[in-house]
Amino acid sequence: SSAAVTAVRGPLVWFRDDPFLHDRDESFVHIEDGLLICADGRITAAGPYSALRERLPAGTVPVHYPDQVIVPGFVDTHVHYVQTGIIAAFGSQLIDWLNHYTFVEEQRFSDAGYARRIASGFCDELLRNGTTTALTFCAVYPQSVDALFEEASRRNMRIAAGKVLMDRNAPDALLDTAETGYADSKALIARWHGTGRNLYAITPRFAPTSTPAQLEAAGALRREHPGVLTQTHVSENTGEISWVRSLFPERRGYLDVYDHYGLLGPRTVLAHGVHLTGRERDRCAETGTAVSHCPTSNLFLGSGLFHLHDAKDPRRPMLVGLGTDIGAGTSFSLLATMNEAYKVAELGNYPLDAVKSFYLATLGGAQAMGIADRVGSLEPGHEADFVVLDPRATPLLAERASRVGDIEELLFVLAVMGDDRTVRATYVAGALAHDRDAAPVPRGG
Ligand code: GUN
Ligand code: ZN
């Protein structure tokens, strides 16, 4: 029906393929004056306005965004919604940071009301930043998962999330057991996976906080539920890696722990992977296991510099997406994350161009999560999640953007200077979900 049709007009940018592996012309699409037509939550047409205008149903007037850039909604492949309240916690690296801040905050999520309040703010913050899909950790409590999926459902967002599994090396109030973790995850999969746009992710926190029995149970869940995602952390911090070696001396290394329990493969996203060895990268590529590059977090916690160039080596490319890793990460913005990814790559003498950065933040993330047939692209048939970026969001940005020579240069400026102010509008399933310039709703009284 025409009531469900929306259309937007303006410059369009998206990806057909991975620009780390294919020519720019095969992978990158740019249409200067484009038209996107959406019906019932999906993109039905994307192309030049001049060619598509006659396909607009009678009475559908496109929202015009001249001089903006319309890109697929950003995909955040690693984030902890339950850590929204502890961003910017001073003074420690990973393990101390977990003990001093994270494990304290996550205990508050046994309270469903608190979980609901933070989940609501989290979803709004994603949309303010142009992020329409996120793969997120919850807390150990099933009610923390219910709260997030309920808020995501209210906004019709495509979110993947799961209950943290941890049965050792954390405060008692945060521990489950191999059996309860398995049973609770199974019930949550039945309730949420494929309900609306929600997707479930089996979520062992990381090897140090799960017993072998729990990792075994996580592997069983993965075998029993083929479409479900899996997420955990790997090789983020050198002290963490030594700890894993002492806890699992019979395994060849950190990645091999997950491999042994059947946790690698398509739809598995490992956060960080800063210190993966060459052989571990080979194994990720061979199994189709993805890594989430979280530069703001890796710098904030002093974890190290991710080797993006090696990860995307065309001889054995890994799937890589970008992650904010809130609350060790310092920004919800995938633009700010691209900025830090650029600097980290420069430290390895690898110039990360904006075409590759925007790919990582959109199609690359969707491929990492195994949902590239649905999100991360403006190709017709995909779900109509997209963002309108404003090159004149601030006076300085406007000045800089006025000097660019082409779209790639403009994307680079947006990636380095952009943040939530740059997000003019966010559309979810074809409907306006965030409008930066909308008048604030008056408060009562
Ligand atoms: N490793 C295990 N848990 C966490 C977490 O919550 N954040 C980060 N950055 N790393 C982890
Ligand atoms: Zn994390």
From TrEMBL:
UniProt KW Plastid keyword: no
Positions of the Amidohydrolase-related domain: 69-430
Metabolic or biological pathway, per its Swiss-Prot or TrEMBL entry: Purine metabolism; guanine degradation; xanthine from guanine: step 1/1
Textual note on the cofactor: Binds 1 zinc ion per subunit.
Reactions mediated catalytically: guanine + H2O + H(+) = xanthine + NH4(+)
Gene3D superfamilies from the UniProt entry: Metal-dependent hydrolases (3.20.20.140), Urease, subunit C, domain 1 (2.30.40.10)
InterPro entries for the chain: Amidohydro-rel, Guanine_deaminase, Metal-dep_hydrolase_composite, Metal_Hydrolase, Metallo-dep_hydrolases
Keywords carried by this UniProt record: Hydrolase, Metal-binding, Zinc
SUPFAM superfamilies registered for this protein in UniProt: Composite domain of metallo-dependent hydrolases, Metallo-dependent hydrolases
UniProt EC number: 3.5.4.3
Cofactor(s) listed: Zn(2+)
One Pfam family it belongs to: Amidohydro_1
GO molecular function: guanine deaminase activity; zinc ion binding
NCBIfam families: guan_deamin, PRK09228.1
Similarity annotation: Belongs to the metallo-dependent hydrolases superfamily. ATZ/TRZ family.
Stated role: Catalyzes the hydrolytic deamination of guanine, producing xanthine and ammonia.
PANTHER family in the cross-refs: GUANINE DEAMINASE
Protein name from the UniProt record: Guanine deaminase
Classification of source organism: Bacteria, Bacillati, Actinomycetota, Actinomycetes, Kitasatosporales
